[in-house]
TrEMBL record:
It comes from the Bacteria. This is Lipoprotein.
Amino acid sequence: MKFKPCFLFILSVTVFACQNQQKKRFKSAADSIRHAKLLAEERGEETPDPRPKDEAAFFKRIAAESDYDVTSNAAKKDAHIIAFNKYALDSLKSIKDWEFKVTEVNDNSSDASSLVKTMGNPDAVYNLILVAPIKVDNSVDSISISNRVDFVYSIPKEPKGDALKKQLDLIKTLTKNDVVIVSGALTHIDDKGKVNFASFYDQYLPWNIDLLLTSIRKK
């Protein structure tokens, strides 16, 4: 029994030493991460994009399509429209877990999705307007100052079916700047009911793209 206090003392010293060493390792790892970020900033390198790869690729594609070198040449523009329409049909049928911020929920028929304007009743829907938070500028009243893409999801005011009713119940709880995670598809319909993004190449306004939701949840 005489050895017990000594044993406890040695044990406590050992545990303390291990904990101290672990803290040093954690601190060293954190310092390494901060150092890497500082080096990347000094070199002018971009920090890794945390968004899903297909989401990041989509916004890079939009930026490329909006370039003046494309829109200022009619022949080049037509070729890009054909390519982008194919890209939309091939690549955007099933988006998964994209992160958006809420701009507003309104019932303005002019804000309804192109699909509803062409094939439905734009006066009988609520419009959920979303943007992707690529860059936030807190010095002005903007939640996505560098983003030239708006998204709209139009849902009937009196939906039929449990899935739509559940979506509407959630939408009713949303306010500006809420963050939502969505899955579904993106599209834009022309007045003939065909997928066609041509109108966006002839304007300097943000692209206003239809969001067809299969799921939505608050972050």
